[in-house]
Write a structure and sequence with these properties.
It is a single chain. The chain has about 475 residues and is an alpha+beta fold. The chain is built from nine helices and 23 strands. The strands form five sheets. Strands 3, 4, 5, 7, 8 and 9 form a six-stranded antiparallel sheet that branches. The protein has a six-stranded mixed sheet with strand order 12-11-10-21-22-23, with no helix packed on it. α4 runs parallel beside α7. The longest helix has 14 residues. The chain is globular and about 70 Å long. The chain starts with 11 loop residues before the first helix and ends in a 7-residue tail after the last strand.
């Protein structure tokens, strides 16, 4: 079989393990996933990864996937003390868990870079070293450091046997080289991080095959190693287009998300979903789940009780915002929240839920809030003015929508709240740069194309977000 630059040529056994041929076999009913991948992984061989997950001050998580059953571990040492090498506890990968492993490095020192080497069945993985840097302790010790967060959504990877006929929809994969070159402190994936195809959605096995294939995509690998990664989902990596709480396999979709992403948490013990909070210095990222509890878009906009996020998730968000002492409070969701055009999906289609939350946000007078979203295959900055309460005008709310990474770009809609000159209708990624000290602390939002060329930027002073 002839290979490509993205997926190399394989022998028959490798072909079965990777899932390149598995989709056709499952579709034909020849065998059931995942028992076909029972062979042990060759020593030193990975199917995908290693990928950095969430990295805290005293621990970090590394994700990887083997091509078959294996025992895996990581050797690690401070970059300037390579003789002080330690080893994680071994983890066994198996078919029931998609051969995925979340390997925890603990008892780490804050603000230190660690060199990490993965092992599979006793042999080192060659050519895939990983440098993991723990968060620096700054609170009560000095000003917050300057740091950079990347963001983006809509990462479509072409797969001709399962794509719709016509020109390829995905492209611009060199974007991940540009993103790796940013040397960022975090990447926040905003949903549609992969695209389930129609055939995939007929069974949980088909969905698992999509994850397995896309995560091994060669242009992604260096970037996944280079930067800590956290994620939320939107419709295409949750289930069907415009999917909602009625999706039959949403439980399996959540299990797959947990296997393939290494977030600090997923929902709450009593509330399922992918929502969580990630802290990085003086920024809190409130990562929301806009699918698991979502009512159907087709229900009436003013229908009592119609929700996109659900009452329990919003209760968590309100309490988390009240608890937060971060200078910047970034509320992120897969779909747009402040665009009032009704051409496509958005929180404006759930007006009762949105109005209740925005009213609460204004009454609570919470400073530092910025919204972040994906989905729309365009990038833009939305400015949402707020009414005057008690003779005072609160700061307008800003939402940065960033999309697409690899999907086909769109032309945008008639968003009445768009900041003029901010629309980008080509593949791109976002850079959130936190700089300055005290009153000069600011968030700079930069949009770059697939080659890393700047397409536009906006600077938001902390004083513009309600801080005196």
């Amino acid at each position: 079989m002839q290979g490509t630059s993205e997926f190399p040529a394989l022998n028959r056994r490798g072909f079965l393990r990777t899932g390149l041929g598995a989709g056709a076999l499952v579709a034909g009913g020849a065998w059931t996933f995942p028992a076909a991948w029972a062979d042990p992984a060759p020593p030193g061989m990975l199917h995908a990864g290693p990928m950095q997950g969430y990295v805290a001050a005293r621990s970090g998580v590394v994700w990887l996937q083997t091509p078959g059953a294996a025992e895996v571990f990581i050797d690690f040492a401070p970059q300037d003390q390579r003789g002080a090498k330690r080893r994680t506890a071994p983890v066994k990968t198996d078919a029931a868990g998609e051969f995925c492993a979340h390997i925890v490095l603990d008892d780490l020192t804050p603000g230190v870079s660690y060199l990490c080497q993965a092992y599979v069945n006793g042999q080192a993985v060659q050519g895939k070293p990983l440098r993991l840097r723990t968060q620096k302790i700054w609170l009560f010790r000095g000003p917050p450091p300057e740091f950079t967060v990347l963001t983006g959504s809509c990462a479509y990877i072409n797969d001709p046997p399962f794509d719709r006929p016509g020109p390829p929809y995905g492209g611009g994969y060199e974007i991940y080289d540009a993103m790796r070159g940013e040397h960022a402190d975090l990447m926040v994936w905003l949903g549609d991080n992969l695209y389930f195809r129609e055939a995939d959605l007929l069974s949980p096995q088909g969905m698992a095959l999509r994850y397995r294939r896309d995560r091994a995509f060669a242009p992604l690998q260096d970037f996944l190693r280079s930067t800590p990664q956290v994620a939320i989902w939107d419709d295409h990596d949750y289930g069907p287009n415009d999917g909602d709480l009625s999706f039959t396999f949403k439980g399996e979709s959540l299990r797959l998300f947990k296997r393939y992403w290494a977030n600090p948490a997923y929902g709450l013990p009593e509330v399922a979903g992918v929502f969580t909070k990630v802290n990085l210095f003086d920024a809190d990222f409130f990562l929301l789940d806009d699918r698991y509890w979502r009512d159907a878009d087709a229900s009436g906009p003013g229908e009592r009780g119609k929700t996109m996020f659900g009452a329990e998730q919003l209760r968590w968000l309100k309490n988390a915002l009240l608890f937060s002492r971060a200078r910047f409070k970034i509320i992120a969701a897969g779909g747009q929240m402040l665009n009032d055009d009704d051409a496509y999906e958005g929180w404006n289609q759930y007006p009762v839920e949105r109005a209740e939350f925005l009213g609460w946000l204004q009454q609570a007078r919470i400073p530092g809030v910025v919204f972040l979203s994906g989905d729309r295959h365009i990038t833009e900055l939305t400015r949402y003015p707020r009414p005057r309460y008690g003779g005072k005008a609160d700061y307008p709310l800003l939402e940065y929508t960033c999309s697409p990474l690899n999907s086909g770009p769109s032309r945008g809609d008639a968003n009445p709240n768009r900041v003029p000159g901010t629309l980008v209708a080509e593949r791109n990624y976002g850079v959130l740069r936190f700089t300055g000290e005290d009153k000069d602390r600011a968030l700079e939002i930069i949009t770059r194309d697939v080659a890393g060329t700047t397409l536009g930027s906006q600077r938001i002073e902390a004083g513009q977000l309600g801080w005196a």
